[in-house]
Fold:
Amino acid sequence: MEEFYIDSDGIRLHAKLDKPEGVEKCPLCILIHGFTGHMEEDHIIAAQKAMNEAGVAVLRAEMYGHGGSGGEFRYHTLYKWVSNALSVVRYAKSLDFVTKLYLSGHSQGGLLTMLIGGMCADDLDAILPLSPAWMIPDGARNGQLLGMEFDPKHIPETLVSWDLELDGDYVRVAQTIHVEDEIERFDGPVLLVHGGADDVVPMAWVEKAQQLYRNAKLVCVAGADHCFGGHIEEMAAAIRNFFTE
Ligand code: FER
Structure:
C-alpha cells in the first residue's frame, strides 16, 4: 500500500493505492466513499479487496471535507467533489502501470461516479456506482434532504440534521445537477450494487438508473442495508464477478 496526497487546486486529497501482487501492468479502479464517509469504512475496504483479488489496483481517495483530506465538512459541495474527482482521474491517467481505468463510489460517491462517468466517458472503461444516492439533486430541488424539509426557493443558511451542520451552498449546488444528462453520456459497462433493505437510497432510483444506462447490470443484495451491513461479502462477490466474468 502506498499513502500520499493528490493536489486538487490547492486542496490536499488523502489517497491510498493498493496494487494486486506480482503484476507489472494492470487496470486501476478509483474508489470513493460517501457523505460523512472515509476510505477505511468496512464496505470500502471490502470493495477494495475484492477489486485487488480480481487483479485490479485500487486508488482510494477522500473528497473535500472528508477523512484526511483538506476542507471543512460543512462547506463541501458536489461541485467541490466533482473538481476533486477530476483531479484524481487526471492523476490516475498519469500512472504508467495502468491499463484500463474504472471508477467506483458508494452513495454520494456513487452519485459522483455517475456524474464523472458522463463527464469522462472517454477515460473510463466501466463505472461501479454502489448504493448511488442520485436522488440528492431531486431532493435538493424538492426541499427534502437529510430527512428534513425546507423551502427549496429560500434555502436555509445551514442545514442541521443527523447531528451535522451543512452549509446552504450544498443545496444551492445540488439543485443545479441533472444526473440523467451524465447517464445519457456514458455508454460503457455499469455495475450497480444495492442493498435490498437500504432505507437511505430507495431501490426504485437504482432500478431507474439500470434502465436508463445502455449497458448496466444491477445486483441487489437481499437484506443488506445502505452500507451492506451483514452482507458485505455478497457485495464484494458482485464486484469480483464483474471484473473476472
Ligand atoms: C440525503 C440522503 C443521502 C443526503 C445525503 C445522502 C445530503 C448521502 C448518503 C451517503 O453518501 O451515504 O438526503 O443529503
Remarks:
- The first helix runs from residue 42 to 53.
- The pocket of FER is lined by residues 34-35, 107-108, 133, 136, 139, 145-146, 200 (CB under 6 Å).
- The chain has a mean pLDDT of 98.
